[in-house]
TrEMBL record, chain A:
Membrane-spanning segments: 20-40, 77-103, 115-136, 173-192, 213-234, 276-296
GO CC term (a single one): plasma membrane
Record's keyword annotation contains Transmembrane helix: yes
Location within or outside the cell: Cell membrane
PROSITE patterns found in the cross-reference section: ABC_TM1
Biological process terms in GO annotation: transmembrane transport
Domain ABC transmembrane type-1: 78-292
CDD domains documented for this protein: TM_PBP2
Keywords, alphabetical: Cell membrane, Membrane, Transmembrane, Transmembrane helix, Transport
Top-level taxon of origin: Bacteria
Protein name: Sugar ABC transporter permease
Family recorded in the similarity comment: Belongs to the binding-protein-dependent transport system permease family.
Matches recorded under Pfam families: BPD_transp_1
Length: 303, 275
């Protein structure tokens, strides 16, 4: 039973492969029904019109796509998405990096701080957004309360068109710190002791050690965070839905929020146009992923 | 030399303390605010700690105003089903990739990899339509079915299986163990740390999900706790203390996971990378 006769080797390889396929099958069924088929259907929806009940109303070619480029609202959506990504990705990495370097110090209590700073990671987008909603409250929120002590009048954090995106971004930066910190700390923890020791013996210390030795060694982690963070920010939805509902004047309507608005808000059921926007999102994410694998990755220092 | 390092240490503590206050303030206010009455939260400038008494009844009020008990149960069930589902499908698929002769291995590998590159939001409309047509809105099935398998989980388990020598399988075969028995009684117990990592990641992301449960449920009694608390905030006239109490209830399980499971979370950070 344990040794297959050689004459049957070919057949047993085929049945072996069938067995392997059976092990893959449960996952493949889920992927097929809930990822690949919906992907095909998204493309199909995006080239169809939609009647008022939300049913596809026949092939319309690239009408939904050409609408994207002529719709001023959608140009604003792209701009807001870009601004939101810039305002969230880099600041959250910079803050996490600063914290991670502080936590590298050999001082007492580091363990306590390490756990404390990871706590934002436990927050869901809903829990964090609701808390920030309370803090941002213009009439009784703590932020305006603290500002009043230095004589600043009440700020409309979420309803001022020039400020809302900054406020939502600030809350998002906070949500991302915990994850970024864990990644950078893991990278710092894996630094080769001998390299650091050699650098110290050569007289490098403090800022010099960080800049010339530590930073180049953790570029893979930082690069990973830029890519993952960008994709994550592009997918942000909950904080916008909970804090600003895309407003004021659409100034916080990002691509994903726009998809939601077209398809689901106020029973819009504009599935065709929303699907065209969804394809734009897919394209952007695929391009970023391709960049990660192709161009940029070679420039990063790997051990 | 010594004094300069002492200054350095002092500066580090100052920086840590400042960052601690800034970063942890929302956590602090969420917790303390959940015990404050309206006299404290609605005054201006608002109190930073309970000046006019402590109000634990915020919690019972939160439980009373929305069907939070039901929603909690829904979240627990949803999290359990997704976590167990992902563990099972990931372990099986990873086993096929590592220990079984698989035709077109590269192709299937690419299929699993590609699932990680498709942003869920770009296919959420057809998924919503499908779940609606199947009549699965407001059900645990509707909340969980799309998430029962992940490329991430498969690659995490594959990484773990790859670390075992192939002799392990040969030895088991000599002892007469078939594939399933080898997997269940030898590999799975040996892979406990990776299983814990995957389980914690699955549970965290399932519990914290927002977009999909928002679409897949309508009836408040069948919504998850995340949707429940976000609507607490928008329904008019809710006292901030009670809203924050709801938040704390939703936060409690994940807070425990992050505090006590950090070791496993870090393991999952890098293990999923395909290299």
């Amino acid at each position: 039973m344990s040794v297959a006769p050689t004459a049957d080797a070919g057949r047993s390889r085929r049945t072996g492969s069938l067995l392997a396929f059976a092990y893959l099958l449960p996952a493949l069924v889920v992927f097929g029904i809930f990822i690949f088929w919906p992907l095909v259907k998204s493309v199909m929806l995006s080239v169809q019109g939609t009647d008022i009940l939300g049913n596809p109303s026949g092939f319309v070619g690239f009408v939904n796509y050409s609408k994207l480029f002529t719709d001023d609202g959608f140009l604003q959506v792209l701009w807001v998405t870009f601004a939101f990504t810039v305002l969230t990705v880099l600041p959250s990495i910079a803050i996490a990096l600063f914290l991670a370097l502080l936590l590298q110090s050999r001082i007492r209590g580091v363990k306590f701080f390490r756990t404390a700073f990871a706590l934002p990671f436990a927050f869901s987008v809903a829990t964090a957004s609701v808390i920030f909603g309370v803090l941002f409250n213009p009439a009784s929120g703590v932020l305006n309360g603290l500002l009043s002590y230095i004589g600043v009048g009440k700020v409309n954090w979420l309803t001022n068109p020039d400020l809302a995106l900054w406020s939502v971004s600030g809350a998002t930066v906070w949500m991302q710190i915990g994850y970024n910190l864990l990644v950078i700390s893991a990278g710092l923890g894996a630094l080769p002791d001998d390299v650091l020791e050699a650098a110290r013996l050569d007289g490098a210390s403090g800022f010099r050690l960080q800049r010339s030795i530590v930073m180049p060694l953790i570029t893979p982690q930082l690069f990973f965070l830029v890519v993952v963070g960008t994709i994550h920010s592009l997918q942000s939805f909950g904080q916008i839905k909970i804090l600003t509902v895309g407003g004021p004047e659409g100034r916080t309507t990002t691509l994903v929020y726009s998809i939601y608005e077209q398809a689901f808000a106020n029973n819009n059921s504009n599935y065709g146009y929303a699907s065209a926007q969804a394809m734009v999102l897919l394209l952007i994410v695929l391009v970023i992923t391709a960049l990660q694998f192709g161009v940029l990755e070679r420039r990063v220092f790997y051990r | 030399m010594r004094s300069s390092s002492r200054v350095g240490t002092a500066l580090t503590y100052v920086a840590l303390a400042v960052m601690f206050v800034i970063v942890l303030f929302p956590v602090y206010y969420g917790l303390v605010g959940s015990f404050m009455g309206e006299r404290d939260t609605n005054s201006f400038p608002p109190a930073l700690w309970p000046v006019h008494g402590v109000f634990p009844e915020n919690y019972s009020n939160a439980l009373g105003i929305i069907p939070l008990g039901n929603q909690y149960l829904t979240s627990v069930l949803q999290t359990l089903v997704i976590t167990i589902g992902q563990l099972v499908t990931s372990v099986l698929a990873a086993y096929a990739f590592v220990f079984l002769p698989l035709r077109w291995r590269g192709f299937w590998f690419a299929v699993f990899l590609s699932t990680m590159m498709i942003p869920y939001e770009s296919i959420i409309i057809p998924n919503y339509l499908l779940i609606s047509e199947l009549g699965l809105k407001d059900t645990i099935a509707g909340l969980t079915l799309p998430f029962l398998a992940t490329g991430f989980g498969t690659f995490l388990m594959r990484q773990s299986f790859l670390s075992f020598p192939t002799e392990l399988r040969d030895a088991a075969r000599v002892d007469g163990a078939g594939h399933l028995r080898f997997l269940v009684s030898i590999l799975v117990p040996l892979s406990r740390p990776s299983l814990a990592a995957l389980g914690i990641w699955s549970a965290l992301s399932a519990w914290n999900m927002y977009f999909w449960p928002l679409l897949a449920t309508e009836d408040p009694r069948h919504q998850t706790i995340q949707i429940g608390i976000s609507q607490l905030k928008t329904s008019d006239g809710d006292s901030p203390g009670m809203v924050l109490a709801g938040v704390m209830l939703a936060l409690f399980p994940t807070l425990l996971l992050v505090i006590f499971g950090q070791r496993f979370i870090v393991r999952g950070l890098t293990a999923g990378a395909v290299k």
